[in-house]
Amino acid sequence: MDARRAPCSRPSNPLLPMAFSFVLRLASTVSLVVVLITPPVLGQEECYAEFITYTSDGLKVAGVMMKPPGDGPFPAVIWNHGSRVTHERDQTVRAGGRCTRVVEEQRWVYLIPERRGYGASEGESYSSYVRRLNLGGIDAAVADANRLWQEADDVVNGMEFLKTLPFVDPRRVALVGVSHGGMVSLFAAAKAPGAFAAVVDQAGGIGAGRYHVEVGIREMVRAGSRVGTPILIQHGRDDLVVPVRVSIALRDGMARAGKDVTLRIYPGSHYIFDRQPVGEWGRDLLEFLHDKFGR
What we know:
By secondary structure, the chain is an alpha/beta fold. It contains seven helices and nine strands, in the order ββββαβααβαβαβαβα. Strand 2 and strand 3 (59-66) form a beta hairpin. Helix 2 (126-133) packs antiparallel against helix 3 (137-162), helix 3 (137-162) packs across helix 4 and helix 5 packs parallel to helix 6.
């Protein structure tokens, strides 16, 4: 593994950060080659979002990382975005901006990868994938789930990347994901059982249509039965994008398998999680992560 570092200095014209969302096959093999572009250095006094890349399944995955001031080692969160259909090449968070409030207040490292086909990452976009296959009915739902199993490799390799950094505590890496990202987080935890300290699935699923609900439940329950990590599921009661019954079925399936799973349902739609942690769900999220990180 080849990791390179360069000194980090305050950008001369820091960009304002974009609104930050607070937001497998099991036998598959993943290879990892890491390239880190201007990473944070130990002992830094200020916190900025840094552009990083690493390799996953032969593809360059780009993203940003935020590190609080100090030497660490710090807990780390990998935050997994949703689908952004037709806007996949937009960036979730721009490099160069100040770290988000949750990073500075909680003193957690945040890795925000743009999975294959998103942002500056290599690979076919999700929209192009859907158009190329041109499927309908249950075949389309299965293809969507298969795509997310592939994207889960990018998250597992992101975890391997974090574990090469001296300021990250490799025993305290958690996953948080919303919508597609929630499903990907669960799949990643299934691909690497025991590798993560916690998983938070926020309204995870692949859609509201009959077959997408059916396949989504099946695949998530299958993944959940393989996870050896405590899981918090959060969902909006009035979600029309991914019905709340998907998360209820996931909770029930994981409970039957004897897994450590908690479901919390809140007033609101699919999009209540697309911002900084606030209100009841934000408090539940922070409390859950603090508990699993051991404060």
